[in-house]
Amino acid sequence: SSTMSLSEAEVQSARGAWEKIYVDAEDNGTTVLVRMFTEHPDTKSYFTHFKGMDSAEEMNQSDQVRGHGKKVFSAINDMVQHLDNSEAFLGIVTPLGKKHATQLKIDPKNFRIICDIILQLMEEKFGGDCKASFEKVTNEICTHLNSIYKEEGW
Q: One Pfam annotation, family name (predicted)?
């Protein structure tokens, strides 16, 4: 559905939670990716230039991993800024979903993995309330991405 299921209060608290982690977008984005690659090594296969990296330390130092971590966080940040405008939100999510489905052919389950790691990191750094207020946003993002994938024939 094109309507967002978040109330205005939920949008505000989600933005507050996101701001805390987005302050260090590159470091936190890198941490999230490194955790994903370490805990789900199959996800590395999509990134040809990360394939040879086995140690978390090596990945943390990599400009490419850091660059992509920052890119992921920037994309989510754009979505978070438009949680109260479903048209603008979909304007960001739709091309992103299409690109990952058609060009990059990335399994949509990886979006859930990334979102879960972000929530985990939020909880570790800022506590359960922070995580709880962002959980609905990750569900919203994953739901929309999954429907875009279905439209693209996944």
A: Globin
